[in-house]
Amino acid sequence: MTGDDRTGPPVFGSERDMLRAFLDYHRATLALKCEGLTDEELRRQSMPPSTLSLLGLVRHMAEVERAWFRRAFEDNDAPMVWSDRVDFQAAYDASASTRAEAFAAWEAEVENSRRIERKAESLDQAGYQPRWGEEVSLRMVMMHVLLEYGRHNGHADFLREGVDGTVGA
To answer: Which InterPro entries match (predicted)?
Structure first.
């Protein structure tokens, strides 16, 4: 990893500003964990039987962003990015994927999620989560996606260390 240019979340702010900042910080953390690696290194899997890789995590988070923002607040029937049905595990198979492909999809979904969040009038805005079959608030969605990033960035720490020994951040 070259440099850490992430903007740390504020220690004071509105609920919405805090959620937005922490989400962006964790999005930047995932990108940082992948920085400077080749496609082959990004596809390197952890240890059998796991097929988890950094590139698989990027692909998975593109699915998470789409499922929780686009599908809940814009188009309940929007197709998933990497599978014909809602199969978050399919994204982990990055064996034929490239950095360019995975990051383009992920970055597009992140930008779409940011747009949806910005145009919402409040954190209480309701969306419909088709997978759960119920309404969800923007607040709940932002918290859920933040927790997904937190969990998977922990995986990314171990994966990156396994690739080239880099730790931290």
So the answer is: DinB/YfiT-like, MST-like
